[in-house]
């Protein structure tokens, strides 16, 4: 069973968990993570923050019972991982922007490392974190605390925008980018049970029927997602 | 040689581990984790005649030792299942069970006819993709159909009777713990010619968000599953076993090989595993080896030795 290498508090309610071992995964994919035996019954879907030759890194926000247990993990503790699951971000070309909101920056670091120096926009409600970590992999990093990061972007200059964050932010971004040539890809967070497409707990309402966040996503073209029906906004 | 096998309504189960409807897709999702042909059988995602988008809003909520779900029978419909999934089922060496729900008696009957025609056509060609129909009269998450038919025995009787007439395939009826009289419901199924019963489906439950002052589920109620419901499920399987001769598929909160043995001792021929698949994606293959280990430890040569001994 994999072993915890470190579990460091990065910001309020926000931790970086590093697990020893050789792991596979593409940018935007996730693992089902479990740090307990039977209860809570469900594992937690956590996106890949980074993969190194001898470790995998997850960035998570403490929001409930499962992530509270993650926060209590210490070096040497064992942990269950199944994955990688999900489609991940597609390979994109041209001029690319990554836009993260809060804990939504998590899957973007791995993407930044694999893309060719994208522009990176990071928005936080109260406290910025890990901005310095992104800088070596970016053409430019724009950070906003307490405001609207989507207002800081000149959409016309991008061919593709990859985003992850609060659904309100992603919807606003998709609307602002609508008149540009940029293709917007959103990474959605949903409650999951199986993580492999069997239980239909994580269905996302799309323009042409439901899709599964765990296998068809978590990354979707923004224009594919019916934000109004999905989130009631 | 220890024998885990069982024959149920003429269908061979190589072991008593069957994956429960709604937790196992149509099987292929788990093939990246283990060879699902190690399993006794699989019950596919619950189907309705027409495709269904399922419920909106939150669909899952954890509870102490369990979970509530409100998927609402999202499924591609019978015709799409027959077209897209049965080619894969044809090549599977495990018992293949179609779970069929409905919004009206006519839908149930038409669905059963389509499934039966499809299978009979294949069998005339010396092929097969479906071994059995599991009639779902017990889904608590849809407003029409499902549990509407699963509470009162006399309402359910009409569905079972008409579907029995509509199919020559082995037919088992999945019972709801919310039934007014679970033993009476099982006796009715036996009287109407069902080949077996499976129980229990989820228990109707609820979760309120006290800050929002409303149910977390748009459909208000949801189905409780997982180890929390196992004692209730076991009692109901035992109770039904005292009243019918047709075989029972027992389920509800099974999360270990020892749980499986309990259900068999209570009278189940085979068991189904649902929520445990989410607790452990490799549950199926681990339960099969766990049963074998128990039989060796206890020097049991056939599960018939312990079936229904309580």
Automatic annotation (TrEMBL), chain A:
<keyword id="KW-0274">FAD</keyword>
<keyword id="KW-0411">Iron-sulfur</keyword>
<dbReference type="GO" id="GO:0006221">
    <property type="term" value="P:pyrimidine nucleotide biosynthetic process"/>
</dbReference>
<dbReference type="InterPro" id="IPR019480">
    <property type="entry name" value="Dihydroorotate_DH_Fe-S-bd"/>
</dbReference>
<comment type="similarity">
    <text>Belongs to the PyrK family.</text>
</comment>
<feature type="binding site">
    <location>
        <position position="202"/>
    </location>
    <ligand>
        <name>[2Fe-2S] cluster</name>
    </ligand>
</feature>
<keyword id="KW-0001">2Fe-2S</keyword>
<dbReference type="InterPro" id="IPR039261">
    <property type="entry name" value="FNR_nucleotide-bd"/>
</dbReference>
<feature type="binding site">
    <location>
        <position position="214"/>
    </location>
    <ligand>
        <name>[2Fe-2S] cluster</name>
    </ligand>
</feature>
<protein>
    <submittedName>
        <fullName>Dihydroorotate dehydrogenase electron transfer subunit</fullName>
    </submittedName>
</protein>
<dbReference type="InterPro" id="IPR017927">
    <property type="entry name" value="FAD-bd_FR_type"/>
</dbReference>
<dbReference type="GO" id="GO:0016491">
    <property type="term" value="F:oxidoreductase activity"/>
</dbReference>
<keyword id="KW-0249">Electron transport</keyword>
<dbReference type="GO" id="GO:0050660">
    <property type="term" value="F:flavin adenine dinucleotide binding"/>
</dbReference>
<dbReference type="InterPro" id="IPR050353">
    <property type="entry name" value="PyrK_electron_transfer"/>
</dbReference>
<feature type="binding site">
    <location>
        <position position="199"/>
    </location>
    <ligand>
        <name>[2Fe-2S] cluster</name>
    </ligand>
</feature>
<feature type="binding site">
    <location>
        <begin position="44"/>
        <end position="47"/>
    </location>
    <ligand>
        <name>FAD</name>
    </ligand>
</feature>
<dbReference type="InterPro" id="IPR017938">
    <property type="entry name" value="Riboflavin_synthase-like_b-brl"/>
</dbReference>
<dbReference type="GO" id="GO:0051537">
    <property type="term" value="F:2 iron, 2 sulfur cluster binding"/>
</dbReference>
<dbReference type="InterPro" id="IPR037117">
    <property type="entry name" value="Dihydroorotate_DH_ele_sf"/>
</dbReference>
<dbReference type="InterPro" id="IPR012165">
    <property type="entry name" value="Cyt_c3_hydrogenase_gsu"/>
</dbReference>
<dbReference type="GO" id="GO:0046872">
    <property type="term" value="F:metal ion binding"/>
</dbReference>
From TrEMBL, chain B:
<protein>
    <recommendedName>
        <fullName>Dihydroorotate dehydrogenase</fullName>
        <ecNumber>1.3.-.-</ecNumber>
    </recommendedName>
</protein>
<feature type="binding site">
    <location>
        <begin position="274"/>
        <end position="275"/>
    </location>
    <ligand>
        <name>FMN</name>
    </ligand>
</feature>
<dbReference type="GO" id="GO:0005737">
    <property type="term" value="C:cytoplasm"/>
</dbReference>
<dbReference type="InterPro" id="IPR001295">
    <property type="entry name" value="Dihydroorotate_DH_CS"/>
</dbReference>
<comment type="pathway">
    <text>Pyrimidine metabolism; UMP biosynthesis via de novo pathway; orotate from (S)-dihydroorotate (NAD(+) route): step 1/1.</text>
</comment>
<comment type="subunit">
    <text>Homodimer.</text>
</comment>
<comment type="subunit">
    <text>Heterotetramer of 2 PyrK and 2 PyrD type B subunits.</text>
</comment>
<feature type="binding site">
    <location>
        <position position="174"/>
    </location>
    <ligand>
        <name>FMN</name>
    </ligand>
</feature>
<comment type="similarity">
    <text>Belongs to the dihydroorotate dehydrogenase family. Type 1 subfamily.</text>
</comment>
<feature type="binding site">
    <location>
        <position position="45"/>
    </location>
    <ligand>
        <name>substrate</name>
    </ligand>
</feature>
<keyword id="KW-0963">Cytoplasm</keyword>
<dbReference type="InterPro" id="IPR024920">
    <property type="entry name" value="Dihydroorotate_DH_1"/>
</dbReference>
<feature type="binding site">
    <location>
        <position position="226"/>
    </location>
    <ligand>
        <name>FMN</name>
    </ligand>
</feature>
<feature type="domain" description="Dihydroorotate dehydrogenase catalytic">
    <location>
        <begin position="5"/>
        <end position="295"/>
    </location>
</feature>
<dbReference type="GO" id="GO:1990663">
    <property type="term" value="F:dihydroorotate dehydrogenase (fumarate) activity"/>
</dbReference>
<dbReference type="InterPro" id="IPR012135">
    <property type="entry name" value="Dihydroorotate_DH_1_2"/>
</dbReference>
<dbReference type="GO" id="GO:0006207">
    <property type="term" value="P:'de novo' pyrimidine nucleobase biosynthetic process"/>
</dbReference>
<dbReference type="GO" id="GO:0004589">
    <property type="term" value="F:dihydroorotate dehydrogenase (NAD+) activity"/>
</dbReference>
<feature type="active site" description="Nucleophile">
    <location>
        <position position="139"/>
    </location>
</feature>
<keyword id="KW-0285">Flavoprotein</keyword>
<dbReference type="InterPro" id="IPR013785">
    <property type="entry name" value="Aldolase_TIM"/>
</dbReference>
<feature type="binding site">
    <location>
        <position position="136"/>
    </location>
    <ligand>
        <name>substrate</name>
    </ligand>
</feature>
């Amino acid at each position: 069973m994999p072993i915890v290498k470190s579990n460091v508090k990065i910001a309020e309610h926000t931790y970086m968990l590093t697990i020893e071992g050789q792991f596979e995964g593409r940018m935007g994919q996730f693992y089902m993570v479990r740090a307990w035996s039977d209860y809570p019954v469900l594992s937690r879907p956590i996106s890949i923050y980074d993969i190194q030759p001898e470790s995998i890194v997850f960035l998570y926000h403490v929001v409930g019972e499962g992530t509270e247990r993650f926060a209590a993990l210490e070096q040497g503790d064992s942990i269950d991982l199944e994955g990688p699951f999900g489609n991940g971000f597609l390979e994109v070309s041209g001029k690319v922007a990554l836009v993260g909101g809060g804990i939504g920056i998590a899957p973007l670091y791995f993407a930044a490392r694999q893309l060719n120096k994208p522009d990176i926009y990071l928005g936080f409600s109260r406290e910025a974190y890990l901005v310095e970590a992104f800088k070596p992999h970016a053409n430019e990093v724009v950070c906003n605390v307490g405001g609207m990061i989507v207002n800081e972007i000149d959409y016309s200059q991008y061919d593709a925008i990859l985003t992850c964050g609060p659904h309100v932010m992603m919807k606003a971004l998709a609307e602002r980018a609508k008149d540009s040539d940029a293709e917007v890809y959103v990474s959605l967070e949903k409650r999951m049970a199986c993580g492999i497409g069997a239980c239909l707990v994580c269905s996302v309402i799309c323009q042409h029927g439901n899709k599964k966040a765990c296998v068809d996503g978590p990354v979707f073209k923004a224009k594919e997602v019916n934000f109004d029906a999905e989130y009631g906004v | 040689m220890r024998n885990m096998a069982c024959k149920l309504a003429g269908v061979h189960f190589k072991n008593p581990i069957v994956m429960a409807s709604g937790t196992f897709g149509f099987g292929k999702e788990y093939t990246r984790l283990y060879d699902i042909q190690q399993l006794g059988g699989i019950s596919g995602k619950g189907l309705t005649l027409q495709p269904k988008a399922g419920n909106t809003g939150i669909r899952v909520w954890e509870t102490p030792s369990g979970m509530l779900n409100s998927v609402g029978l999202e499924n591609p419909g019978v015709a799409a299942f027959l077209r897209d999934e049965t080619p894969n089922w044809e090549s599977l060496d495990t018992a293949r069970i179609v779970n069929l729900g409905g919004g009206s008696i006519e839908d149930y009957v038409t669905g059963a006819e389509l499934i039966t025609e499809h299978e009979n056509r294949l069998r005339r060609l010396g092929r097969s993709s479906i071994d059995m129909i599991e009639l779902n009269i017990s889904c608590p998450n849809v407003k029409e159909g499902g549990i509407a038919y699963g509470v009162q025995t006399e309402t359910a009787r009409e569905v079972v009777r008409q579907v029995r007439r509509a199919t020559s395939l082995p037919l088992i009826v999945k019972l709801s713990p919310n039934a007014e009289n679970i033993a009476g419901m099982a006796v009715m199924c036996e009287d109407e010619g069902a080949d077996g019963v499976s129980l229990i489906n989820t228990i109707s439950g609820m979760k309120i968000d006290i800050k929002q002052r409303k149910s977390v589920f748009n459909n208000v109620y949801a189905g409780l599953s997982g180890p929390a419901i196992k004692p209730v499920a076991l009692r109901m399987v035992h109770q039904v076993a005292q009243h019918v001769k047709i075989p029972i598929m027992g389920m509800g909160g099974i999360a270990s090989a020892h749980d499986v043995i309990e259900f068999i001792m209570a009278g189940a021929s085979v068991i189904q595993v649902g929520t445990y698949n989410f607790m452990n994606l490799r549950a199926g293959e681990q339960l099969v080896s766990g049963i074998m280990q128990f039989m060796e430890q206890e020097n049991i040569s056939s599960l018939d030795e312990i079936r229904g001994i309580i």
